[in-house]
Amino acid sequence: MTARALAVSSPLGLAARRFLRHRMAVAGLAVLGLLALAALGAGGIEALLDLDPVAVDLLGRFAPASAAHPLGTDELGRDVLARLLRGGRVSLSVGLTAALAAAGIGTAVGLAAGYRGGCTDALLMRLTDGVIALPLLPLLIVLAALDLEKLGVPAVWASSEQVGLLRIVAIVALVGWTTVARLVRGATLAIKARPFIAAARAQGAGPGRIMVVHILPNLASPIIVATTLAAGNVILLESVLSFLGLGIQPPTPSWGNLLTNAQELVWSAPGLAVYPGLLIFVTVIAFNFVGDGLQDALDPRATDRRA
Q1: How far apart are CA 92 and CA 130, in angstroms?
Q2: Residue 184 in contact with residue 121, Cβ under 8 Å?
Q3: Who's near 148: CB < 8 A, 6+ residues apart?
Q4: How far apart are CA 303 and CA 301, in angstroms?
Q5: Would you say 136 and 182 are in contact if contact means Cβ atoms under 8 Å apart?
Q6: Residue 150 and residue 158: Cα distance in Å, rounded?
Q7: Which CATH superfamily is domain 15-40+78-298 in?
Q8: Residue 268: CB partners within 8 Å, gap ≥ 6?
Q9: Residue 73: what are its φ and ψ, rounded to 5°?
Q10: How far apart are CA 166 and CA 252, in angstroms?
Q11: How far, in Å, are 36, 43, 97, 136, 157 from residue 163 at the CA level?
Q12: Helices (H), 244-270
């Protein structure tokens, strides 16, 4: 059998082929790739088009789209396209980082609960149920409104852009791990009953090695799918917090606080609200489509008719 045939018939090759047949997932992945490239290349695009996201021009407020400003200017004369690119960098980085952090916490909790069982399982799952029972948005608002200076954080750090980003990531990760934890626990319960786990125990493998080496690699599918789906939800949460003035603080742009600035200008300058709102909508839908495609592609029970 040729190397190409082996690659196509391998589990990864079959999963890739199933994913590629999911047209909306492929389209979503392409959209996310373009958005990521645009956000990462914001500086180059700004230099190429001679744009400045922070330059204020009060004489050029609400300018229409032109060669100098492809999407016009905002209420302070700042270029809308440049601010959308910089806002995309913030929103996408917060969404992906928080989703990965939540997935890490959920994986650790679910793996320990599923493998250990007994009191450990009961304690961790009751903790998970308690977090799920909390009203999410009010809790996020309360946590985001905490004054970091009163908690002992130096004023210089508390007002810095990096701490603001880390704060949102930490808040969302602390309440967003429950779905991954429940999925990982269920999968762990099924995997630890398989013969190869008993064989590993018979060979003297300890609990830590079994969990990390033998069980965790088999949990990749549910973790990847849950993380992908969670990224879209995190971007929505960040946008809501920023819209309420509790998320990413100006002058750092994010899609959420761009919507906040535009809420009183919807009728006079609708584009200022339409552009960031449309980007949030497209990004969340794209993440959901990619998550659906990965779920179908990585499902071990899925069949490949052409295999």
Answers
A1: 29
A2: no
A3: 157, 158, 163, 167
A4: 6
A5: no
A6: 10
A7: MetI-like (1.10.3720.10)
A8: 62
A9: -125, 165
A10: 14
A11: 22, 22, 14, 22, 6
A12: 255-262
The position carrying tokens 């890490």 is 104
Residues whose CB is less than 8 angstroms from the CB of residue 234 and which lie 6 or more positions away in sequence, other chains included: 94, 95, 98, 99, 102, 172, 176
Six token digits for residue 71? 């999407």
Strand partners, 73: 79
Surface-to-core class of residue 292, CB atoms within 10 Å of its CB (0-12 exposed, 13-18 middle, 19+ buried) = middle
Q: What is the value of pTM for the model shown?
A: 0.82
Spell out the residues 6+ positions from residue 90 whose beta carbon is closer than 8 angstroms to its own.
165, 248, 252, 253, 254
| Residue percentage of the chain with pLDDT more than 70 | 89
Q: How far apart are CA 78 and CA 72, in angstroms?
A: 8
Instruction: Tell me 58's DSSP state.
Output: G
Residue 232 per-residue DSSP state:
H
- Residue 175, number of CB atoms within 10 A of its CB: 16
Average pLDDT in the chain: 83
Residue type for 14, please? L
Count CB-CB contacts under 10 A for residue 271. 18
DSSP at 77: S
* pLDDT digits 0-9 by tens, 26-37: 999 999 999 999
User: Domain locations in the chain?
Assistant: 15-40+78-298
**Contacts (Cβ under 8 Å, ≥6 apart) of 75:** 61, 62, 261, 265, 269, 272
Among 181-185, 186-190, 298-302, the range scoring the smallest mean pLDDT is 298-302
For residues 119 and 134, what is the distance between their CA atoms, to the nearest angstrom?
23
Q: Which of 259, 280, 281 is nearest to 271 (CA)?
A: 259
Q: What is the DSSP secondary-structure string of 160-226?
A: SHHHHHHHHHHHHHHHS-HHHHHHHHHHHHHHTTSHHHHHHHHTT--HHHIIIIIIGGGGHHHHHHH
Residue whose token pair is 């704060």? 167
